[in-house]
Every structure is written in C-alpha cells, then in structure tokens.
Amino acid sequence: MNKVYSLLTVLALSVLSASAGVIVLEGNYQGKNIYVQNPFASSGVGFCVYEVTINDQTTTDEINSSAFEIDFSFFQLALGSKVEVKIKYKDDCKPKVLNAEVLKPMATFDIDALAVSKEGVLIFNTKNETGSLPYTVEQFRWNKWVDVGTVQGKGSPDINKYEFQIGTIHSGENKFRLKQVDASGKPRYSIETKYKSPLPPVTFNDAGKKVSTSVSFSDKTMYEIFNAYGNIVQKGIEKSVDVSKLDKGSYQVNFDNTFGEFKK
Prior knowledge:
Structural class: mainly beta
CATH architecture of the largest domain: Distorted Sandwich
CATH topology of the largest domain: Coagulation Factor XIII, Chain A, domain 1
CATH superfamily of the largest domain: chitin-binding protein cbp21
Distance between the termini: 96 Å
Largest sheet: 5 strands, antiparallel
Strand content: over 45%
Helix content: under 10%
Number of domains: 3
Order of helices and strands: HEEEEEEEEEEEEEEEEEEE
Shape: elongated
Oligomer: single chain
Radius of gyration: 29 Å
Number of helices: 1
Number of strands: 19
C-alpha cells in the first residue's frame, strides 16, 4: 500500500512539475481568433499545451494537435470586450502564439459629431470604438497638419463624448481633424471641421531684420523656426522668442497662419 501511495505521489509531483508554464494574453476582443503552434512535449508524450482559458473559462478548442485555433465565438463576446487568455503548457516545452496582436485595440471609431465652440473647445462624439486608443488632435496650418494635443479614447462601442480646449487657434479660418493609430501603424482620420476665428492677424515684428538675441510677434502665437537646411531648430507658443543660441544665418518662421524671415 505504501509503495502504491509513493508511486501516486511521484506521479502527482511529475504532473505538477510538467504544468508550470502559462502564457497570458490581455486585450480587447476584435472579432478575430488566435492561432497557436503547439509542439510535442519534450518527454515525447502528448503535446505541449494542456489547457486554454478565456476569462478563466476553459475553452472547448481541440488543442491536441501541432497547431490549433482559440475560438472566441463560443463565448459570444461583444466587440471591444476585455479578454484574458491563458495558455497553460508543460514546462519542458513552449507553444508559440502567432497573432497576439489581434487583441490590441484597433482604430475603428466613427464620428457622431465634431465642432469647435465659440470658446475654442473642440467637441466631438464617437461610436464603435473597440479599445482605448489616444486621439491626436491635428490643426491645418502652414500648409500641413500639425499635432496640437491628445485625448485618450474611452474604448466603448457606444456614444463617447469628448472635449479638448484648443490653445493654438490662429486668425482667420482654422481646420481641425482627429487621428488614431493602432498596432498596424496605419492612421485613421476623422472628417474635418472648420472654425472662423475672431482674432486679429499676428504680425512678425522682426520680419526681414538682423537680430542677435530675440524676435517678437504682435501677440502670443504658435511658431516654428527653420534653418537654411529646412530643419526645425525651435518651436513653441510665445510672444517673444529667445534666439541667442542659434547659429548665424538665415531663418524662416512659421507663425499665426503665415510665414516670415529673419537673419541672425
């Protein structure tokens, strides 16, 4: 009897020591399944993976093969739902997840409303988000789109409401849009919205002049300074700009919604 008990104990300990590994994948359900390469156990008995769970519920996937699919359809998850996948395997081998990125948030939003208030607040409503991704607020100025701020997405497929105080409004017509970039690296853009500013045009006090320490504008403005090679050497939002550390030479200045030049 003691021999049988000892044998059972050894077998139990062997099972425990052979089942120590676990791969944990967390993210949001995006409507796609996960694929796993599943090698043989080093012992030569059976395959590496012995259990898969989704949100702590054991799946019914056929895991006794060299490759298998983790099928989410049985759990009837809504798009964007948070999921935690655990792939448990024996410690003498390791499976390989082929497409773990399918649980990462995707840029799937649709714009329900987008406008700028009289107070200079960008107000936008979205729907069909399937994960929390940041929105980059872009403003069109100087013949290009410029990043002016970020708003973290809520990730809900229902209507989400956002507000962003714009601190970079220029004189004349302003244009804004939103951008999201997901794991694919491909940006998704919103429609554009326009806003007519009541602000007077900003002028460049040192246009065409030779300066040594600073340049100034008629009012506080967003600006960029470029050297002769077209590289941005200084930028910010100021009325007076310290340029004492710039090398001697010619410089172009983007400010308000126009351009200027000066020499150092």
